[in-house]
Amino acid sequence: MRWQLQEAKQRFSELVRSAREEGPQIVTRHGEEVAVVIDIDLYRSLSGSKPSFKQFLMSGPDFDDLEIARSTDLPRDIDFSADT
Description:
By secondary structure, the protein is α+β, with helices and mostly antiparallel strands. It has a domain at 2-48: YefM-like fold. It contains 4 helices and 3 strands. It has a 3-stranded mixed beta sheet with strand order 1-2-3.
């Protein structure tokens, strides 16, 4: 259902009840959709549980088992005496 903003403010309890019983309710201002009121259970299922940034980084692959070969070559010589 669509609600004009003024009507949504005046009948907020009914708006919330409709969101729980009928599903998402769209709020408009001057004919333009500006908000959606949804049931808290739907909100939680949509937003899901998000890990913290630290948990995200820690959940990555274990690099201890990787075998990475490094070059044993010495770095190149640089001549600092030349004018540039």
